[in-house]
Amino acid sequence: MTSPPSRAGRRCHAVLNPIHSLLYFSPELPREMAGLGIGEQSAVYLATRAAPMGAAGAATVGAVFYGFRPGLVARHIPAVWDRARPSEVVEARLRAADAVLRRLLGDRAVESPGMSEAAELALRAAAGCSPHGRALFAANADLPTPDQPHLRLWHAATLLREHRGDGHVAVLLREGLDPVESMISHAASGHGQHPAWLRETRGWSEQDWNAAQGRLRDRGLLGPDDSLTEDGRALRKAIENDTDRLDAAPYDSLGPEGTARLTELAGGFALTAAKAGAFPSEVTG
Questions:
Q1: What count of other Cβ atoms lies within 10 Å of the Cβ of residue 142?
Q2: How is 118-182 classified by DSSP, letter by letter?
Q3: CA distance 86 to 77
Q4: How far, CA to CA in Å, does 27 sit from each of 32, 100, 282?
């Protein structure tokens, strides 16, 4: 049996991911996207996250995002590319990131030495990532790095988030968890997002959800009350450990001291943003 991987990378990811994902809960992003003719919430998210891949079709976007119902993706992709070019969406999301970070953190934090230090540490970590088999990471890595420190940090957080996410999908596939099963089991672990919010935003019906719960019960991963069994908890732990292993390279490259310092700095910014209302309460489980 291999030893558990270091938790340092997971801890760093836990504070960098909110710096990226706060964009999706902001009012600034839909305002920018509305100016491009993209208004529905699902279309905004799908276009914003998919744009670095170019004018990808529904099957490609659904494959790399993993958790979305194919019908929901097909309702918006590729139609959004008739309204705005992917390059225009990339520019719009960067404008939105600038505005929301300034609003939540304040200009003093945005222009602080700590922001510049965090950005350079995060970019050093991202430089240690490999693009092989990681479509979303590779697409974002092809984008130019912004000049301003807070946008450099946001860009690096995006790279690191997608690098980990691409690896996580590979682990889910190996363990035979389909998109709905993976969301249900993660939510049941106490670390996932709220099930009702996941169903609504990912386009799955209550019937889809119930059927997936049944499959997990048949595998012995969920109990009669839909909580994780001992086998279910063991599987979720193994999934997170293996995701850590696949995500070790950027933090190994940065080193223990650099990773700890990045976690400290990014954690402070993420906490400030959360206290300023970056994330609605209905998102968390």
A1: 11
A2: HHHHHHHHHHT---TT-HHHHHHHTSPPPSSHHHHHHHHHHHHHHHHHHHHHHHHHHTT--HHHH
A3: 12
A4: 9, 8, 16
Interatomic CA distance for residues 213 and 193, integer angstroms: 16
* pLDDT at residue 280, as a whole number: 87
Give me the amino acid identity at 138.
A
CB contact at 8 A, 65 and 23? no
Cβ neighbours of residue 24 under 8 Å, at least 6 residues apart?
45, 48
Place of tokens 């996207």: 33
Is a pLDDT exceeding 60 seen at residue 285? no
Q: Which two tokens stand for residue 11?
A: 């801890």
In Å, what is the CA distance from 182 to each residue of 18, 94, 151, 172? 21, 30, 32, 7
Give the integer Cα–Cα distance in Å for 61 and 2.
Answer: 34
**Pair 121, 265: CB distance under 8 Å:** yes
In angstroms, how far is the first alpha carbon of the chain from the final one?
A: 32
116 pLDDT band, cuts 50/70/90, is very high
CA 219, CA 255: separation in Å to the nearest integer? 40
Nearest to 87 by CA among 41, 121, 47: 47
What is residue 192's predicted lDDT score, i.e. its pLDDT?
Answer: 72
Confidence category of residue 282, pLDDT binned at 50, 70, 90: low
**CB atoms inside a 10 Å sphere around CB 10:** 17
Q: Which residue has the tokens 């222009």?
A: 111
Give which of 141, 151, 235, 149 is closest to 188, Cα–Cα: 235
